[in-house]
Task: inverse folding
């Protein structure tokens, strides 16, 4: 995806911990849609996921499209909202479908749409995304850092504080650690912040696990 630069006055902070959110029409529309659809809790969580993922990509010297990473991070919990939740699919699939529909409506190449779909659909599947496309790996890395604190020590204190300052956690204080809660299980199918939102119903997760096909 080609980056389209323009005025940043309406964008989120231009740089956080050295990571820049791409200034493009697509990104601005993603931000507006997610901000208008999700609760502030989920919006800030999704934003932090982008920064953790991008910082991880920089640290690992991975080549990735920041627009695709941003779309994956920002849409990854949209299936938890009434607007995008379906009766029978896992929330990951609902989220991935919402991203797919949005990107297709903006003329994004199908190969890139599939990358974002897969990144979102697999973001609660430990052990698989690290072996896939960088965007897929980094969305999961961002979620794992923000929810479970995985690789916490690999981020500098300056990076951690900058990200949380830009997109605060509930009850966060600069005098407190920015370490996420470590009470969740890495194998749990529950979505990020599920215990804090009331939008998640365990009965919506089929016991057979997530569907991987983007049909």
Result:
């Amino acid at each position: 995806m080609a980056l389209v630069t323009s005025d940043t006055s309406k964008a989120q902070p231009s740089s956080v911990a050295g990571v820049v959110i791409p200034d493009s029409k697509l990104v601005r529309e993603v931000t507006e849609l997610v901000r208008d659809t999700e609760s502030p809790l989920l919006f800030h969580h999704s934003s932090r996921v982008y920064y953790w993922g991008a910082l991880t990509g920089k640290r690992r010297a991975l080549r990735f499209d920041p627009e695709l990473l941003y779309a994956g991070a920002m849409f990854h919990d949209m299936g938890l909202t009434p607007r995008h939740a379906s009766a029978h699919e896992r929330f990951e699939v609902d989220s991935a479908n919402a991203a797919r529909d949005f990107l297709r409506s903006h003329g994004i190449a199908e190969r890139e749409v599939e990358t974002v779909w897969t990144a979102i659909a697999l973001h609660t599947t430990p052990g698989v995304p690290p072996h896939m496309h960088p965007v897929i790996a980094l969305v999961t890395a961002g979620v794992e850092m923000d929810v479970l604190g995985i690789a916490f020590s690999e981020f500098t204190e300056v990076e951690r504080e900058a990200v949380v300052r830009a997109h605060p956690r509930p009850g966060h204080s600069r005098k407190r650690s920015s370490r996420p809660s470590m009470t969740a299980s890495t194998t749990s199918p529950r979505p990020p912040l599920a215990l804090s939102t009331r939008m998640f119903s365990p009965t919506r997760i089929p016991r057979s696990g997530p569907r991987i096909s983007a049909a």
Observations:
- The mean pLDDT is 81.
- The chain has one domain: 25-200.
- DSSP finds eight helices and no strands in the chain.
